[in-house]
From TrEMBL:
Keywords: Membrane, Transmembrane, Transmembrane helix
Taxonomic lineage from the root: Bacteria, Bacillati, Bacillota, Bacilli, Bacillales
Superkingdom per UniProt: Bacteria
Residue stretches spanning the membrane: 12-31, 37-53, 65-83, 89-111, 154-173, 193-214, 221-238, 244-264, 276-294, 339-357
Organism (species): Paenibacillus glycanilyticus
InterPro entries: AbrB_dup (IPR017516), AbrB_fam (IPR007820)
Protein name: AbrB family transcriptional regulator
Alphabetical list of PANTHER family matching this protein: REGULATOR ABRB-RELATED (PTHR38457:SF1)
Amino acid sequence: MGRQAISESNGFKFLITLVTAVGGGIIFYLLNTPIPWLLGPMIAVLIGSNAWKGKYRWPRQIRNSGMMIVGYTIGLSMTGTALKEMGAQLPTMCLMTVILLLLCGGIAFAVSRLSDTDFMTALLGSIPGGLSQVLALAEETKGVNLTVVTVTQVVRLMIIVIGIPLLVFSPIFGQVHDAAAAAVPIAAKHENWAALFPNILIFAPVCVICAIAGNRIKFPTAFLLGPAISTAILQGIGLHGPSLPSTLISASQLMIGTYVGLLLKPGKLQRKVRTFSFAIVSGLVLMLCAWALSELMTLLHPVSRSTALLSLAPGGMDQMGILAHEINADLSMVSGYQLFRTFFIYFAVSPLLRLLLRIKLKSPRTEQPQ
C-alpha cells in the first residue's frame, strides 16, 4: 500500500507538471516567441513549482529522451554538403571559433570580476551554443549555478534572435525580406509520420544504444552527442535519416524545458537586477563581437556579409538556418560553421572546463597553511 500510494502521488505530480508545461508552451506559441516549446514549459514550471512547492515531478529519463531527439536532429544536419564545407574552410572555422570563444572568456572574466558570479558560471553563461545543449553541459559541471547560466543564456538568445534579423535587414546589410522563401521552412515542417518508416527502425535503436553506452563511459552530454554522432555515421555509410515531424521536435523541447524549469532555483539568484543587467550587456557585446568577426571573414573568403554574420552569430543553428534560407544566404556554409562550433564546444571546451574545475577545486587545499 505504501509503495502504491507513493506511485500514485508521483503520477499525480507528473500529471500536474505535464499540464503546466503544455499550458506554458501553448501560451508562448500564441505569443510567437522563439523556441516556445522550450522556453514556455521552462518558465511555466518554474513559476508553478515555486508557487506550489512539492507538487511537481519530472523524471530525468524523459529529459534524456528529449536530448536524444535533439541529438538525432543535429546528426541529420551533418550532410555531405555541410561536411565538405567544413573541410574546405576548416582553418578559418577553427580561427573564428577560437577567437569567438576567447572573447566569451574575456566577457565572462569581466562579469565575474564586476559581479559576485564565479568564473565557471559566467563562462558557461557566455558560451555561444544551443540553449538546451549548454544547459545540459552546465548541469553536468559541478559547482556551476544553473539558474544564472539559464538566465544569461536565455537573455543572450533573445538578443540574438531579435537583434540579428534586425541587423541583417537593416540598411547596413541591405537584405530584403522574402516572404515566399520564409514560408518554405514552415511548410517543410510537415506531419508525415509515415515517412519515418522503415529507416527510423534502424536509427532509433542505434541512437538509444549509443546514448546509453556513452553515458556508461562518462562521455560528455552522452544523450545528445551519442545520437548525433551515430546518426551522422549511419548517414555517412549511405542510410537516409528521415526528418522528424515538428510535433516530435516540439515535444523534445518540452521534455528538456520542463526538466530545466524544475532545476532552477530563483531563491539562489542573488542581486537579480545586476544579474539581468550583466546578461543583457554581455549578450549585446557578444553580438557586436560576432559582427566584427564576420567583417574579418569577408576579407578572408568571397562570401556575403550576411552569410558571414549568420555563420558566426552566437545563436541556434536552426534559427540561423531559417534566416539564411529566407535571405538566400549560403545555407551550407551557415550550417557548417554553426555545426562546427557546436561540436568544438563539446569536444574541446567541455573537457577544458572540467580541467579548470578540477584545478579550482584543488587550489584551496594547496593554499592552506602548513
